[in-house]
Inverse folding.
């Protein structure tokens, strides 16, 4: 019996590894993964900036709450302004870089003019996010571009624009591009002549698309995307299967770079406010009217380290991984992950577009939700009722949100342990991909 | 081994250094929340007319959002026939003037239904007060929504004595139902008239009538809107009737009519509107 079990596990294991290797060889898939890894340093710096900004120098930041930073740190307000600027510039334009990088990698894989392809994709992507309300002439709508779409929210669309532009360059240019050691003006001009067709057709395609979309959606193609992707997310109420389905879908979207189409508005949902009022009146979280909601089960217990329980992944990697890439990324990104910023892990490992890590990324939150749901149903712990900042370390949210109930902290730690156990086999599998790759190279 | 020992110690110390103040903060935070309540909030509660849903005011809310620097968050309620409430949307923590739209699963026309809807409004209102703990609110009713408000203010608001209504605006509310007559009184009007002494004394009321021609907005007769004065005059602090004519004055267009949006901004929301809007609303001579 056990022998049979082992062979099935081995089969699944080998299947996954083969799939991962086959997928690695596809040109566009590779370009996608390479783009994400190229983005890693920017996203990492962005995460540390967000960490400084949102954890320390914002009024509702976790460290400001607990250490009262605003009272004794000199120039607190100026630091807040400066770090907000950094955050908006770094994280707010990351999708433009993504569009550039994706087209760049695709064109390079077919020996086409990768630099021109990248630049063309970046311009196309920005054009796709033009704010047509600009022409209304209202004073409030003066922004020329839909800035929110240029940040991490827009990564999925940016990758798509990059891939399409790269495809255009690969198929509309006959001759391969030869890199010169020293560029001459003559060669640069020849590059323009060789590549005018994909350049012009890409720009035309995306400008028409953007203009067409503006008649349907005011927030551009991205806004339309988010509307469609947010459709399945009505309020799932207190039904476990509905909650599991909604959150699973939300995490799938994270995996492909559609970051947070769903705003559960956890702290301000009616059920949460009702719970809070009850707890304030009765002096206890026990017996709150809505013990089971997305906020009390998912927000508070299944997002340790950000969506996908990614802090568990960091622990699993630092503990047992021998994959040097994994270790390097985890060592750089554990600190933001503690405060629920997992974007460096998403693009660095990458988790996004990785068939191997996608499985635990989706399963771990489900396990956490089941455990928390059971604990709430059996009344082993009170529900989270008090407001807790978004940047509170994930494993403390249950504890602080219940007004300091030790049982909730225990559930959080159990969740983290179970999630680590779920990630561990996949992290160990990745050891083998590393070794396999090395064999391949050798 | 020795190095590991140090790492663990530092880790535990850091954890303690975070957890202890965090625990203290959460205790202190609960205490402040308890003392503060949400008394500064004064929502604008809107009720659509018959056969309209909780989404009826979406275009009005978009229209209002275009001009105002202040973002209003929107909460929508649907009261089921058994008195349970479905919520969608949410109120931002920092929003002191959120919009709340209350719709009814049974949103049919007719006196019997309107009587029921006033009771459902009371259920929803009490739930809102319990959840958000506000002391003041503003009310907006389109068409029969204005009648539901009137009934509620006359008969049920006193069940929540701590909460005060400051301003009510009704848009094309047929106080005498479909009657075009200036003398015949419908049973709906009689009921509203009978309980009028229950209206809060401190209330300011604006009743807006839309007219496509001299007699109606296509659905509600202007004479029926005029009957509001028999109910409100001498009962509330101020009662003002405003008639809007011109483009987009068909009954169902009224809530998003530009003129009426301007009136809502100045009178109901008491926004600091620009002079151009003020002049348009009050027909003041140019200075």
């Amino acid at each position: 019996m056990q022998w049979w079990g082992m062979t099935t596990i081995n089969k699944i294991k080998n299947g996954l590894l083969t799939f991962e290797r086959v997928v690695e060889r596809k040109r566009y898939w590779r370009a996608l993964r390479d783009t994400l890894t190229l983005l890693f340093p920017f996203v990492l710096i962005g995460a540390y900036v967000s960490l400084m900004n949102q954890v320390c120098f914002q009024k509702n930041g976790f460290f400001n709450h607990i250490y009262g930073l605003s009272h004794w740190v000199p120039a607190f307000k100026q630091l807040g302004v400066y770090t907000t600027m950094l955050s908006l510039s770094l994280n707010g334009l990351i999708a433009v870089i993504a569009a550039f990088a994706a087209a760049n990698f695709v064109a390079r894989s077919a020996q086409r003019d990768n630099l021109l392809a990248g630049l063309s994709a970046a311009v196309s992507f920005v054009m796709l996010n033009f704010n047509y309300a600009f022409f209304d002439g209202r004073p409030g709508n003066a922004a020329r571009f839909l800035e929110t779409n240029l940040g991490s929210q827009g990564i999925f669309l940016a990758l798509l624009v990059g891939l399409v532009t790269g495809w255009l360059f690969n198929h509309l240019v006959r001759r391969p591009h030869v890199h010169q050691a020293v560029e001459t003006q003559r060669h640069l001009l020849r590059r323009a002549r060789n590549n005018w067709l994909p350049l012009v057709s890409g720009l035309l395609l995306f400008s028409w698309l953007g203009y067409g979309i503006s008649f349907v959606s005011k927030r551009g193609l991205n806004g339309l995307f988010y509307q469609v992707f947010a459709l399945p997310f009505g309020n799932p109420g207190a039904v476990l299967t509905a909650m599991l389905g909604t959150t699973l879908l939300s995490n799938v979207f994270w995996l492909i770079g559609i970051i947070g189409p769903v705003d559960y508005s956890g702290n301000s949902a009616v059920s949460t406010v009702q719970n809070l009022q009850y707890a304030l009146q009765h002096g206890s979280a026990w017996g709150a009217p809505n013990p089971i909601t997305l906020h009390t089960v998912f927000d508070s217990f299944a997002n340790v380290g950000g969506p996908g329980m990614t802090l568990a992944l960091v622990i699993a990697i630092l503990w047992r991984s021998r994959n040097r890439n994994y270790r390097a990324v985890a060592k750089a990104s554990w600190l933001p992950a503690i405060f629920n910023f997992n974007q460096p892990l998403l693009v660095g490992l990458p988790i996004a577009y990785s068939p191997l890590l996608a499985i635990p990324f989706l399963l771990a939150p489900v396990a956490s939700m089941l455990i928390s749901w059971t604990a709430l149903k059996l009344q082993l712990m009170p529900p989270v009722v008090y407001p807790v900042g978004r940047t509170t370390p994930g494993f403390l949210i249950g504890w602080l949100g219940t007004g300091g109930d030790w049982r909730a902290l225990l559930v959080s730690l159990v969740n983290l342990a179970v999630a680590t156990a779920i990630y561990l086999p996949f992290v160990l599998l990745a050891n083998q991909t590393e070794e396999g790759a090395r064999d391949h190279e050798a | 081994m020795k190095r590991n020992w140090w790492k663990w110690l530092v880790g535990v110390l850091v954890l303690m250094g975070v957890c202890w103040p965090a625990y203290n903060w959460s205790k202190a935070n609960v205490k402040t929340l308890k003392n503060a309540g949400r008394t500064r909030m004064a929502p604008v509660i809107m009720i659509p007319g018959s056969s309209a849903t909780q989404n009826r005011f979406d275009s009005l809310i978009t229209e209002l959002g275009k001009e105002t620097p202040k973002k209003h968050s929107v909460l929508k309620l649907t009261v089921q026939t058994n008195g349970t409430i479905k919520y969608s949307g949410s109120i931002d923590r920092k929003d002191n003037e959120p919009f709340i739209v209350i719709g009814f699963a049974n949103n049919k026309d007719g006196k019997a239904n309107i009587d029921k809807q006033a009771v459902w409004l009371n259920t929803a209102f009490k739930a809102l007060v319990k959840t958000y703990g506000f002391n003041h609110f503003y009310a907006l009713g389109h068409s029969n929504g204005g009648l539901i408000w009137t009934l509620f203010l006359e008969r049920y608001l006193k069940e929540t004595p701590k909460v005060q209504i400051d301003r009510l605006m009704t848009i094309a509310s047929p106080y005498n139902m479909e009657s075009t007559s200036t003398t015949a009184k419908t049973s709906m009007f009689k009921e509203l008239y009978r309980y009028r002494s229950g209206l809060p004394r401190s209330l300011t009321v604006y009743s807006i009538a839309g007219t496509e021609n001299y007699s109606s907005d296509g659905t509600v007769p202007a004479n029926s809107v005029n009957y509001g004065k028999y109910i409100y005059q001498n009962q509330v602090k101020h009662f003002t009737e405003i008639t809007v004519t011109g483009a987009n004055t068909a009954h169902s267009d009224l809530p998003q009519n530009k003129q009426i949006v301007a009136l809502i901004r100045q009178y109901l929301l008491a926004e600091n509107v620009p002079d151009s809007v003020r002049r348009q609303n009050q027909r003041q001579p140019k200075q």
User: Anything to note?
Assistant: The CA atoms of residues 52 and 342 of chain A lie 15 Å apart. Chain A has a mean pLDDT of 86. The two ends of chain A are 38 Å apart (CA to CA). Chain A has two domains: 74-228, 235-441.
